[in-house]
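PROTEIN SPECIFICATION:
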Amino acid sequence: MHWRHTFQTRIAGVLALLLLVVVAATYFAVHTATTRAVENQADVQLNTGRQVFERLLDLRGRRLQYGLDWLTADGPFKQAVAGGRTVPILEALGTHGTGVSSSEVVVLGLDDRVMVSTLLVQTRGQLFPYADALRKARRSGQQMLIVAMAGRPYLLVQKDVLGPVPIARVVMGFPMDTQFAHELRSMSNLEVSFLSVQDGHLGQLFTTHPGNWRPSIINLLHGTQVDPEAKIQLFHGQRVLSQVLPLANSGEGDEVRVLLQSPLDHALESFAPLDRQFMGIALAVLLVSLAVALFLARRVSRPLNALVQAAERIGAGDYRTPVRVRSHDEFGLLARAFNAMQSGIALRERQLAHNALHDPLTGLPNRALAMERLGSAISARRSVVLLYVGIENYRIISEGFGPEGVEHMLCEASRCLSSSLLASDTAARIAGSEFLLLLENTEIDCAVARADQLHGALTEPLRIGNDEVRHEVSIGIAAYPADGQQVEELI
């Protein structure tokens, strides 16, 4: 059919949206692949930098060991150590320049007590705290030991002074400070930070980062568990690949950690021109696609908009305005179905609304509507008088005349009540033989008089079939606000 073919042609407009999805997915796929490549490159750089770092530590340890070999083989130094006096040993150290000037030296006796130390924290006669750790390192074949000493990390090497039997032991330590961190960065292209912990106290931080970043670096080094896996983190607004490595191996409970970081944002900058070019192409394709899609969508959406507006009107309760769609396709059929539906809904809604608030037999308002009107009068603080009317011989009439007699009796009673109402009054049937009158803006004396008139009218003889019946009527009166402030209280 022709209308079906036209509708299917309009569906072709969806292809423009699919093109948008394809272009966007392609761009994000390329962007994701680029980001992943940069992350892999940063991971490789971090691994390479870690190897360079480890190699540089090894070279620095060998250099210290080389200088220590020359020192312990020096005749004047050996004589000064054999004498055991501080001043000659320090003079011998001063004349020996091989790596001593940039390092700290501690001379230990055979009892592991300090004879001479260039460190102020190590005094003569004091037991050297890392003597056992150095001895264990030598037995295990380690050439160097990293410890936390004097609030900073040190790389230690050791050598016995022979004369010809061992007479002392010399420990040389290289401080791993900011200068050493910058040297590592220049060789590995990584940001390097050192932190030591000694007896639970944080040592001095040495880092290649700016000084105001120190709290964040200390938190990364000391506040987290050592994880051998590198992690991508947001660090001061920059994405970096970070890895924390433990360095201390003294076994004395002290810690030395190093933080290696490879920035990702710098690597992403090299891909920025390509990303901008691809973004430009993607935007151009998107704009053309959107123009075509909007043109097609406008044609397709006109009847659909009319149906949407009709649905909104129906939802808001407007059932009178018909849907006007001139097409003869599915939208036209749907528009006619909408018109038929809203006509049926309007009819049923009016019937349901009336039945929900009115008594189906007498047509009077029911209890719900009466309570609503009474509540509205109380909320507005309008004076109102309630007349309760009850037909006491309702059961006798029901037993004597059946349902038809009861219906006739109730209809006559409701007619009598309705005829006595003023414009502002309300009469309602609240139960089987119970009625309620709301008399607004009425004084209690007038209400009593109207109750007397109503009692006389209701008790007049009523003919049901060939018989004559009189209602036995009781009437109660309550006034707002004199007799109560709430609806249930007045009832």
